[in-house]
Amino acid sequence: MPSGQNITQSGSVTPNHAVMWTLDGVAQDAGPATAGNLTGIGITNNGGVALAVNSGKVSSPYTQFAVVVQGNTAQIVVGNFGTTAPAELIFVVNGETYSLGNTGGNVVGPSSSTNGHAAVFNGSTGEIIADAGGPPLLATSAAFAAFLATLPTTLPGTSGQPWINGGVLCVS
Q: Model pTM?
């Protein structure tokens, strides 16, 4: 299309919808977010928010979902601005909900597990688990008492010194 040529509108438009090219010199409404007709959007941005979806106008409290790319790092950022409640990011995969954010109790584990194996924390965050490699070791009170009865009453190799620290069993 030569520079300065008029653009023709094809069909009706809805305010706040994106515009797309239909033919050379012809533009149309790109449709709603749930049934859009755009086939691609390319964004080149190295640093700062490249794409953002806000729950309200930025002049009032709102929650923002954003994509940021800087160098070799990409981030998905969810945050609240103003006095909105803390932001939460929820993934829904095949109808299964996975929540990340301020809900507490969110644990991420391995991509597969073995039925009956125990889960153990992996790291100090309390949010990552790993397969323990076997079933949990369970003992009844009676079984634990029987085990304790097999322990010596004095520290081995210490000339008969009694257990100290209030009877706390320490294993290293």
A: 0.51
